[in-house]
């Protein structure tokens, strides 16, 4: 388990059942595989409140200009703006018998805690990439964000991916990460450099050349559609995350001699510049180049 970033001890007032011991972990330690930590720019790490939203101020760059010597400098009005980030919490609550929880020298408790961390990470990744906003969870997955670049289909060449990266740069951004479904990435790796050739467009097929496209790191995740990959400029997506809180209590289930284990993680994001994100569809049956 990760090193605690904050320890909150049981209150000395009132019944212990109302304030069970709990420990908070930094997300980078507890759930390092959460895409929100790499595919966005975290601007708030204390989102663990019930306020429900975070306001992020930002400035749209104003143009600079040449000026004559000793002349009055041209006054530029900065375009001040802000982005509203809604936050929601992801939770998991499980009940275990005291015997199961404490048996095996605490290993069982560690295994269950790790399992809960993985479940929270999976849900967080699915939400970030593919969630459809609703009244109760007003968060839109990056792949579903209106206005992002649609790079079209990859069939036998990687040109659509190169075009999306170039378009992001043309729009003032920098492609920093590609999130691809493992099956979509597999299809890309199956593309050959020529007809009747075994060499892959992504490098030698007998060696793992690392996951990257045109110098941009690739992360594979089932959080995106099976035939998609999403190119992201993390600076265009501010986000807010809370510490990952892990708590256990033997009081709430006192009558059944059981332990309650709870994990809570609050997160949220918003896209400031949709044109600095893009997605590409990998054809289900890619052909070889001729």
Automatic annotation (TrEMBL):
Pfam families: Phage_capsid (PF05065). Residues 1-21 are annotated as: Disordered. Residues 51-279 form the Phage capsid-like C-terminal domain. This is Phage major capsid protein. It is found in: Virion. It comes from Rothia koreensis. NCBIfam families: major_cap_HK97. Residues 1-13 have a biased composition (Polar residues). Coiled coil: none annotated. Gene3D superfamilies: hypothetical protein PF0899 domain. InterPro entries: Phage_capsid, Phage_capsid-like_C. SUPFAM superfamilies: Major capsid protein gp5. It comes from the Bacteria.
């Amino acid at each position: 388990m990760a090193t605690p970033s904050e320890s909150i001890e049981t209150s000395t007032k009132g019944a212990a059942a109302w304030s069970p011991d709990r420990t908070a972990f930094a997300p980078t330690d507890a759930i390092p595989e959460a895409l929100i930590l790499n595919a966005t720019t975290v601007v708030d790490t204390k989102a663990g409140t019930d306020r429900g939203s975070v306001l992020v101020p930002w400035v749209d760059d104003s143009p600079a200009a040449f000026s004559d010597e000793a002349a009055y400098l041209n006054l530029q009005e900065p375009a001040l703006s802000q982005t509203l980030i809604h936050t929601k919490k992801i939770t998991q609550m499980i009940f275990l018998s005291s015997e199961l929880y404490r048996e095996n020298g605490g290993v069982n408790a560690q295994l269950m805690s790790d399992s809960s961390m993985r479940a929270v990470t999976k849900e967080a990744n699915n939400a970030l990439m593919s969630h459809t906003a609703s009244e109760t969870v007003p968060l839109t997955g990056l792949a579903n964000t209106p206005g992002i670049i649609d790079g079209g289909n990859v069939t036998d060449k990687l040109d659509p991916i190169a075009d999306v990266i170039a378009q992001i740069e043309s729009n003032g951004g920098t492609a920093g990460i590609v999130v691809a479904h493992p099956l979509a990435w597999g299809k890309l790796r199956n593309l050959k450099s020529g007809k009747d050739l075994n060499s892959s467009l992504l490098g030698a097929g007998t060696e793992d050349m690392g996951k990257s496209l045109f110098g941009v790191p690739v992360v594979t995740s089932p959080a995106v559609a099976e035939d998609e990959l999403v190119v992201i400029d993390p600076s265009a997506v501010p986000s807010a995350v809370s510490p990952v809180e892990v708590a256990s209590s033997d009081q709430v289930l006192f009558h059944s001699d059981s332990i309650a284990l709870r994990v809570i993680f609050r997160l949220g994001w918003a896209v400031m510049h949709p044109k600095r994100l893009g997605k590409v569809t990998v054809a289900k049956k890619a052909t070889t180049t001729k």
